[in-house]
Amino acid sequence: MSIEIYNELDPVFEILGLLTIAHGGDWKTDVIKAMDDYGIDGETFYNKHLKTVEKYIETFQKYKVETPSEDFFFQNASQELFMMVLTMAVENRKYLEGEEQLDPMKLRSFIAFYITDTVEHAQLPEIKDMPQLPDEKSMLEFLDSADLKSEEKWYVLDLLRRPDYWFSQLFETIRLNMPAFEKARASVAKPLEKQLKRLAKYENNGFLKLVNTCGDNPIVYPTLVFPMIQIVLYSHCYEGILNEELEKNESASISIKEEVIRQSKSLADKSKLDILCSLKESSKYNLELAEALDLSPSTTSHHMSILMSSGLVTVQKKDGKVYYCLQEENIEKYIQSLKKLLL
């Protein structure tokens, strides 16, 4: 297995991210609040590190091209469904690049696979091994059993009925906004170059461990539009350009008490504690955990993302499957911190 690491932005990912921010609320306020909630002085961090991102977003919005399908993808979709659209575009960029004609059957299968994916397998299966939805009846039967909210089912049904139409619209929106992206990138060229050089030297072992659970040859890009995230899709992965600064700031500012509070919040409901107890017995993949605890796979995935972000759970790849396991060193540290504070 080899990891391809690019020291440049991915236009497809960046444009989709910039468009969703353009259709969102007050980006600056939301970012500062999220950082404050995380235990970091959001206003100070923003003023020191995020002015470049602010200019990048503002420049894109100045030049962006509006299209008729924008609201469908960026206004009407829930956050979970936007992630599906983002994944579809990133992982199927061959259609954007004109390598193949849009195939509605393949697109339907990919959508259905994404919705039912239990995060068990480390890579995408062949299309023939994905769900097949050849007609209206099969689509309705699929959605009837899908783990989606009722309003999300209507949205997905529209996608499934006309996947070639909707994704041709999405790819056209990306093409039309490529000049706006290029202007935005050029507007922050100097600070971006410095940040990319710093990121190239940054060794984020936790993120690389996640990347190693991908397919045979995962591709890693830095991202400026979401500068403090880590996203692992099927073959494409993205690391926020400010993750190192965030880590430094967190280490310098967070107290033992704040860290304990954050980790304790991640155990605020019974299901998450049940997950940890189950993983104590043995490492498990997502569907195995869901069945053992009588949870839906999507609920289990949601709980796991919280437990992983708090450092209590990690992943490992074994026999072609992705398994969750306890981060024992961090759990021991959490227990010792509790003892130090309370005993």
UniProtKB/TrEMBL annotation:
Q: Does the keyword Transmembrane helix apply?
A: no
Q: What is this protein called?
A: Uncharacterized protein conserved in archaea
Keyword Ligase assigned? no
- InterPro entries the record matches: ArsR-like_HTH, HTH_ArsR_DNA-bd_dom, HTH_MetalResp_TranReg, WH-like_DNA-bd_sf, WH_DNA-bd_sf
Q: Name one Pfam family in it.
A: HTH_5
Its keywords, alphabetically, are: DNA-binding, Transcription, Transcription regulation
Q: Which residues form the HTH arsR-type domain?
A: 252-343
* Transmembrane portions of the chain: none
Gene3D superfamilies (alphabetical): Winged helix-like DNA-binding domain superfamily/Winged helix DNA-binding domain
Q: Which one of the record's GO molecular function terms can you name? A: DNA-binding transcription factor activity
